[in-house]
Amino acid sequence: MSEAYITRIAKFLPNESVSNEEMEEYLGYINGKPSKSKAIVLRNNGIKRRYYALLKDGTPTHTNAEMAALAVTDLFKNDADEIAQVDLLSCATSSPDQLMPSHGSMVHGYLPATGPIEVVSPSGVCCAGMHAFKYAYMSVKLGEKQKAVSCASERLSPVLRADQFEDEVQQLLRLEQNPYLSFEKDFLRWMLSDGAGAFLVEPKPNAEGISLKIEWIEGCSYANEQEACMYMGSDKLPDGSLKSYKEYSASEIQDQSVFSIKQDVKLLGEKIVKLGFAKLKDILTKKGISMEDVSYFLPHLSSYFFESKIDDFFNENGIPIPKEKWYTNLVTKGNVGAASIYMMLEEVFNSGALKKGEKILLAVPESSRFSYMFCLLTVC
């Protein structure tokens, strides 16, 4: 088999960064009032800035597919003609612009210079970006592709806007119930961000500068054991099952904001760390890797609240990793879902700080139904 290397990384962030104080100017005020949960959530998640692909009046500035295409295009900024050599486009998102056609096909539509090529669209949430990456990695490693691009992007800001919840709030008011959305619905409004990232994967490292050799990519799902924790386009029933939007009437979808993103916060806190990072310990043992071998640890975090939980787990299980080896950009970029790990690695890769021989461990937990992806890279 061939080897596979990340030779370039690029990202795209829409518009200017948005501060905590400005968020509701973009997302709006539910029932005309500031959110009661916003301050609590922001204090716990530690996010200070994020990006939205829309203006304050809700006017969109970019589609999801367009942002992904702009990140891919940036991979070839030094030689625009080189994009014609790409032979695979592997695109992931949890927030496609439409149900059909596939997200990958829509991204390809913004990239006519690539010509007719293979396109795939892994679905999912945060792990989807790693699934797209693994498909590119395996295609290159098998010798089937020579210049594979994987990308991940999110555009969730439109479904976070207050007008998506107003009908439900008004219905609650008419029923004289407490006129606020449940914490499960309001929780994610203050965490999510828009943007895109892209990797170029090739069978040979760069002749000059650095590349990242892909040592392995491992994934695991606990959906056979756990009910859904984060969901959209459905509602959770008392027995833990999901009722699809297809089973609601048009008025019910609107009145109950079925297409809002919901998070079972209690289940999240109980499961997200101990399930996935126990699996990481098993993977490291199987691969013969010690945390002492790792120079950089890049965990995708939805909130800094989980940083100490992960650290405690590592220490309790005999696989400590010093905090100086950790790197995350959650505070300045927000949670960009499937694209977060791309943006973190882009900053490290293009920082000028990496030295040949150093190892980078990527960890991506996904709370939707508890899936995890891990990857080890070597700087070369």
Automatic annotation (TrEMBL):
Residues 284-363 form the Beta-ketoacyl-[acyl-carrier-protein] synthase III C-terminal domain. GO terms for molecular function: acyltransferase activity. It holds the Pfam family ACP_syn_III_C. One of its GO terms (biological process) is secondary metabolite biosynthetic process. Gene3D superfamilies: 3.40.47.10. The keyword tRNA processing does not apply. InterPro entries: ACP_syn_III_C, Thiolase-like. CDD domains: init_cond_enzymes (cd00827). Keywords: Acyltransferase, Transferase. NCBIfam families: PRK06816.1. This is Beta-ketoacyl-ACP synthase III. It comes from Dyadobacter pollutisoli.
